[in-house]
Structures are given as C-alpha cells and as structure tokens.
Specification:
alpha/beta; 8-stranded mixed beta sheet; 16 helices; 18% strand; 2 domains; UDP-N-acetylmuramoyl-L-alanine:D-glutamate ligase; Protein-Tyrosine Phosphatase, Chain A; 43% helix
Length: 395
C-alpha cells in the first residue's frame, strides 16, 4: 500500500509543480488570445498574429488545423511533431516554449473537442485575456452534438473570466453571450457592417481566397491591442497562409481553362453552402462545374452530410468521388435525389488518373471545388494540381 501512496503523492506533486510553472509562463505574456470556433480557427489565428506583428507587438502563434505549426515572432514557423495522438497538454508546452521570447502576445488555436477539455484548456492552461470564437456550425456532432445548440454550449467552455470575448457568429450566440455575463467578460460581436467593410480590393491582396468574416474578426482583435486597420490588413496579406485555406489555382491545359479551388479543410455543411455560393457567383461564366469529394472511411457522418446536401448544388455537373468509404456519400446523394449519372467514383486510382478525368470533364472551362477532407488523396491531388498551375498561382 505504501508504494501506491508514494506514487500518488509523486503524481500529485508533479501536477502541482506543472501548474505553478505554467502560471509563471502565463504571467510573462501580457496578451493571450485563444481562438476557438467551428471553422476558420487556423486562418484567424494566423491573421491575428500577423496583424499584431505588423503593429509592432512581439507575438508567437500556434495552430492546430491541417498541419500544426509554431509560428515565431519573425513570422517563420516549424511543424509541430507529435508522438501519438494530439493532446491538449500541447497548449502548456506552447507556454513553456514561449519563455524563450520576450513576448507581448501569444495567439493560440484551441485543439480541444470534448466540452470538458475545452473548459480545462482555457481555465487551466491558457487563461486568455481575449477569447475568440469564429463561428458556431454543425460539425463534430458526434463529440459536441447532437445539435448546433450543443456545439455552442461546448464552445462556451473557452469563454475566459473577466476578459474580452469576440465572435463573428451573429446568429447562434445566446449561450456565448450568457457565458460572458456569468464570467464578468465583455462580449463583442463583429457585425454585418464590419464584414461588409472588408473590400474586394483588400481580399484580392491575399494570395488565397480569404473569408471577409475572418478578416473583420482579426481586424477587431488587433484593434483591441492598438493596431490600426490598414496596418493590420497589410500584415495579414503578407503572412504565410495555413495549409487548409481556400486556394485558387488556374490551369490552361490544352486550351481548357480550369479553376481549381481547394476547400478540403472546410468540413461542415454550412461552410460548404457559403463557399459554393461564393464560388458560383464569382465564376459564373464557366461551362462546367465539378465537385471532387474526398471521403474517409473513418468519417462516415461527414460523407453522409455532404451526400444529403449534394442535391442542393443543382448546378454541379459532376461529383467525382475519391478516398475511402465513398459509398456512404453515393447512397446519401442518390437518396437525396442526385442523378446517379452525375456521380463518378475513382477509389484507389492514381492521382494522375483523377486529374485526367477532371480535365476530360472540364469542357472549354470549368471550376473544380475540392471538398470533404484534406488528408490523404485530397492533399496529394491538391499538390498535383498546384504543380501544374500557371506561374502566378504556384505555391
């Protein structure tokens, strides 16, 4: 029994020391910004950090997203290599790494999903001075659901105590607002006017397709720390984008004009509806519209959701299925009323064959949107297309 007692005391002592050291690291960072939400967390984390750097604040950032990165105060970055599965204790490592720098700010993307780990990551690990929520949408419903209202309750776990909380979610925010009131935190919504103020010229200054909501949200957070709008946006436009951002590549392939848009990292139905409506509006002059759906065997709910909403994309000429578990999408799409002749499956095919099929189906001009999942076949196809893009779009 004494062995168990010694071990218990040792573990308890270790946890106490770890907590005290983390508090010490936190005190060295005046501004701690914790970014949560359904979609756009990685992009907004990068945008805020870039804006703060441009404003003269010595800032580090950490993203989780499609490829976890630690971003240094000079804007350079390194891949975070993990042994095993992701763990929220990684946030404490970030605070420990930060002791090497004399920082003004740290911008950290939330990596927790379960409601209780979201609360722990904020109130025990980051203790933010500014909390951020990009949006509240129907994703990870198996963990945070089953409804969007439940997702909002989970995200409310990262509302900080006696601080500032900023969100671009203008509809599903009543619980977030109440959580702020309960914790003595100022609640701010980036409204439609702020989003509309982001001009097309400003968006065109990015090397990829950025959402105006993300830019407006980052501008507001930067403004809270004294960075003016023009400086903030200029800094954002110079920053290295996340792997999962909406990238546009233009190809001129044997007389065919093909516009490739990588939206693989946007995983929820609401995001795809927004993206597709903007793509259809911006590229209304093309002859053909193709949606490449990268499915994953271990994510059947996502494939099913995409299949169920496929009928709503009435102007899609072809759904090209790659990856694994494509039968889930195909069944859901057929049940939703999609003509089976508009669905083509290429499971196990080499990326060159997939590309050739896209070209063959593109007519004289086409917009091709990649959706579903970024990992595996999706990332390989994006790299393959990117290497054949016109010079101004090579990454």
């Amino acid at each position: 029994m004494w062995v168990i007692g010694v071990l218990t005391l040792g573990v308890a002592s270790y946890l106490v020391v770890e907590t005290l050291l983390n508090r010490r690291y936190l005190r060295r960072i005046p501004h701690r910004i914790y970014v949560n939400g359904t979609r756009g967390k990685s992009s907004v984390t990068r945008l805020i950090a870039a804006a703060l750097r441009a404003g003269g604040l010595r800032t580090i950032a950490k993203t989780t997203g499609s490829s976890p990165r630690f971003i240094f105060p000079d804007g350079s970055e390194v891949l975070i290599r993990r042994l095993g599965q992701p763990n929220i204790k990684e946030q404490m490592k970030v605070m420990r790494w930060s002791r090497r720098f004399d920082l003004d700010a740290a911008v950290v993307e939330c990596m927790a999903l379960q409601p209780y780990t979201q609360w722990i990551s904020e109130h025990r690990m980051v203790r933010s001075t500014i909390g951020v929520c990009t949006n509240v949408r129907a994703d990870h419903l198996d963990v945070m659901g089953p409804t969007v209202a439940d997702v909002e309750k989970a995200l409310a776990g990262t509302v900080p105590d006696r601080a500032i909380f900023v969100t671009a979610e203008r509809v599903q925010n009543a619980v977030l607002r109440q959580a702020c009131a309960d914790r003595g935190t100022r609640f701010e919504v980036v409204g439609e006017d702020a989003v509309a103020a982001v001009t097309q010229a400003e968006l065109d200054g990015f090397s990829y397709i950025e959402h105006p909501e993300n830019v407006a949200l980052a501008v507001r957070v930067a403004g809270l720390l004294g960075v003016d709008r023009a400086t903030a946006i200029a800094g954002m436009q110079r920053a290295q984008p996340d792997v999962g951002v909406l990238r546009l590549a233009r190809l001129d392939f044997h007389g065919r004009r093909i516009l490739w848009i990588n939206a693989f990292a946007a995983n929820d139905p609401d995001s795809y509806r927004i993206i597709w409506s903007r793509v259809a509006e911006r590229f209304a002059d093309v002859e053909r519209r193709i949606m490449v759906v990268n499915c994953r065997q271990d994510r059947p709910d996502r494939s099913r959701q995409l299949g169920e909403m496929a009928a709503g994309f009435g102007n899609v000429d072809l759904f090209l299925l790659i990856g694994t578990g494509t039968e889930v999408f195909a069944r859901a799409a057929a049940h939703a009323g999609v003509d089976v002749h508009r669905v083509y499956t290429m499971v196990g095919e080499r990326v060159e064959k997939v590309f050739e099929r896209i070209v063959a189906q593109s007519g004289t001009s086409a917009v091709v949107l990649g959706v579903g999942n970024i990992k595996g076949d999706g990332m390989m196809l994006d790299e393959y297309v990117g290497n054949r893009a016109l010079p101004q779009d090579k990454r």
